[in-house]
Amino acid sequence: MIFEAIRLxxxxxxxxxxxxxxxxxxxxxxxxAVIAMVTVGQxxxxxxxxxxxxxxxxxxxxxxxxxxxxxPQPGMNRPFSLxxxxxxxxxxxxxxxxxxxxxxxxxxYGSSNHQTQVTGSNENWVSGWKLAxxxxxxxxxxxxxxxxxxxxxxxRQRLFGAADPVGELLRVKQIxxxxxxxxxxxxxxxxxxDQDDLVLMPARLVQRRLNGNDGIGSIQIxxxxxxxxxxxxxxxxxxxxxxxxxxxxxAEDFNVTDMxxxxxxxxxxxxxxxxxLSSVAAVSLLVGGIGIMNIMLVSVTxxxxxxxxxxxxxxxxxxxxxxxxxxxxxxxxMGGVIGIGLGLGLAFIAGxxxxxxFVPDPLVILLALVFSxxxxxxxxxxxxxxxxxxxxIEALRHQ
Length: 399
Fold this sequence. Notes:
single chain; alpha+beta; 2 domains; six-stranded mixed β-barrel; 12 helices; 10 strands; elongated
């Protein structure tokens, strides 16, 4: 009987194609929006995880100031110095230490120029990256502030195209420096930021010639093998309290962050945003369900005489109820299938533009399909029940 009900439902839907499509539109938009939001959100979370893992799960980041909300307290944001970085290299818990200072500058080569971020560091900064061309700076070049630079793939393409720039001279603001290497492309990072749009130079050079100070914004510490994150944080914190002369019991004016902690924080933010947007998009499913109920009520009214004839010749109330209920479910399921295809298509396109992985979740797709059928059952039940409770005599009199 169920197959006959499906056949009759499809015939009724195809008889009024435009009306059926407009009825499904709310479900299509709702399911499509939810699928797109969830898929893009999962792709963003995977991108965050990949970005962090590429830097290394054993990486600590030391920053001045106290983590938290509100304006910083006076004197709590003292920058670090290269001497702090040198001192941290003596820790047995530290395998590599890289000071980091940044500046914004215009890079010029010939008739091409580009505004980019300049990162000042030492030879250890590229531990999380790979060199595509050329070489890394040496420890002596980093300490002496030599006028050498390593380009991200994004800067290379904007200034040199596909050409090999190793050995060429370019100008970073007022500094002429020689290109000694090209970093391997990484693409977009967390929240779509371009990780390849940077120029790496010795920290001393950036301090003296671009920033005009000796401050260091952060220090990256890669832990030695076998050292736990807690042990590394304790060792770094203890040394920095001594170097910054912080009394016992006084508040620290710096913070040490584990990269895994940053990854979890970014992933949770992405998950919350995706959930909120998906909840808003799910309202369209409610609107679509109301549209299905409205059209099914119209359909019941239009086919009153047909229902009366079926009841008069022996059809049971359950058979009439099943026919109209199956029609509502089929209508909702068709909208769900179209919405799933639309949502996956939108997520795929968004992934291309945002440079994030396309990560469809089969469980979410299955849940969307089941929820579409549920919407059809819930909003199709009342019209179907109304048709099943018709008085055959009164229905046959209906014009």
